[in-house]
Amino acid sequence: MKSLERRPGRTRLGVMLWLVLLGVSITNTQALAQAAKPDSLEARIPETLAFAASRLRDTAESLTPGAFPQETRADGTWVTSDATSFTSGFFAGSLWYMFEYTKDPYWRTQAERWQDPLRGQETRTDDHDLGFVLYSSFGNGYRLTGEPSYRDLLLTAANSLSQRYYAPLGFIRSRGDISDLQDLDLIIDTMVNLELLFWASRNGGSPMLREMATRHALNTLESHFRSDGSTFQVARFDPLTGVLKENGKEQGCRYETVWSRGQAWAVYGYTVAYRETKDRRFLTGARKAADFYISHAPGDLVAYWDFFAPDIPMAPRDVSAAAATASGLIELSQLETDSRRAEAYLNAARDILLALSSPAYLSRGTPFQSVLLHGTAFKPRGRFDIGLVYADYYFIEALLRYQALRNPALRGLERPPALIATRAPMPDDPYASVAGDVRIYFSAPVRGVSATTFLLKRGSTLVAADVSYDADSLVAWLHPREPLRYDTEYAVLLTKDITGPDGRSIGFQRWTFTTEPAPLERAEHRFFDFETGSLSGVERVEGPVTLVSGGAALRGNWSVKIPGAAPAFLEESFQGTDEIFTSFLLRMDTAPTVDANLLSLSKNDTVVPHVLLRPNRALQLMNGDTPVGTRTNFMTVGEVYQVTLRQRDGGGRYAILDMYLNGPGAEFECPFASSRVRTSEPRENRFRLGAIDAPLDITLDDVLLDTGR
Q: pLDDT of 288-311, one tens digit each?
């Protein structure tokens, strides 16, 4: 498959695309100035901050400090957390920002009241989020008041965070025990926590804190960035050898796609790193992250939760990604050494803030207690279309940064809204459906859409397609007359003959996407539905495996019963391969009392990927002894689920693992685990399903096993 890592040259194309879509030519500032209009964002900020203040006041006076607002429920009321959550400091930080804006001592009193229960977190060494928790709260407090005790607390926090620094590899551990010599876990989020270390090194802390932050940021450029500027959320190393064990996702859709808030953390974090060090490698990182965000977001630049979510344009947005990016872009525009880039980044930040302060995203007139609507905390766990305390924090921060620009001459250059609101597939989508079509969603009526102005190409070959435009929904459709080819790059072209409502051309535009990987080219195929009432055909049956019928069956007349004993499993052997697809129906009849292997793929006796069913009723994909993907994929006793695992060749000793869980409460269009992992044996030859090493009380059916060549 053509993964995101193997797409050279897309960043330049992406930047050109978003500049065209937003109506900006960074090479023609004179034309831009001629089109300038009064800055409506600047005029809107006082009203927006007044509304934010009303929301903050209501929350501060209705909740009790120590129960920190985290995210809203679907009805708009706050879910709270304790001080250990990464979100716990953001509310106090927002209160400090309101004090900075108004100079009203009420806000200082409330900020101090809400940050006080965070005391004690500064000595923690078990978490990397001390920057999120304490720099957003006490850091702003010290900046605005100079209170010495705040400085002392922050220095203690920085020293605690430094205990997570692993010198042999030059990383700050994001998770796990500081003495763990099996796994070194890193997530892109840590980039934002580095600001605490940089600050401490300038305010009485050890100069080594700055060195630690610098080394971590440099190494993260290598471990988390793809060549096109997009980022992985997760990287895992072997602490002893330095070998990369895994790159993947937890909160995004899949290994090949891009979680938008992670991209925002990269924009923000590398901007801070460049500000603190003036190392141009960090400026390059900030540029690459920013360019990718801007060129792959929809027209209003409020990103979808994943840039390549499968259900765009219906996919949820994430205002936290947009707000953090806007704040980072404003600072980047002031640090940027290229004036044309500075102008472009500030333009993008303004567009984001104009969108977020509009009725589409501001919670005015709704029951939501947050300032902003449409945040996505964790889409794979169903936490989306909600308010987020950190989205509000970065939104307020960005508004204040915009007001306080050191170069106000850059303000006042306002562009019309983007004519293209969004597209499907999105530019550079690595997983577009071969059965899908191409859609363009416009923000205003257009003319001239036809089969000669809206084109699809495969290489130099024009794809035969029917084109239509619905003037009511403002959607243009391109329907290929035949299914697209698997794992193939296609180019979408719009000619300059398409015009907007003012008669001006939208200009020539081109972007590409890649279709999904081909289904497994099967060398061997097995399917067992057990409808003969026997286990005949299964290569090996180990232990007290039985069949059940009637109401106990999952589908049809018969199903396999694993009766709470071990070992009790089905086994199939096959020719060694790294291309494997398996799925089956599963009902957990009682929860296990210990971790139990439900499924394993092995090379002879060496187990490689395997799946645990845990006492907390969670399904967990494992690579050897290392968890892959999220660790809270809960199931309900008595419900029927479909479990799917696919392994693909990841190159060399690596495999790409995708695992799905579908059923009641677990409907998700993306795999819950999706990573490129280093395996001890990339070519397995044996499959086991059932209670492999510990008792399981489960029922199975419709077992499919396909293996590749």
A: 999 999 999 999 999 999 999 999
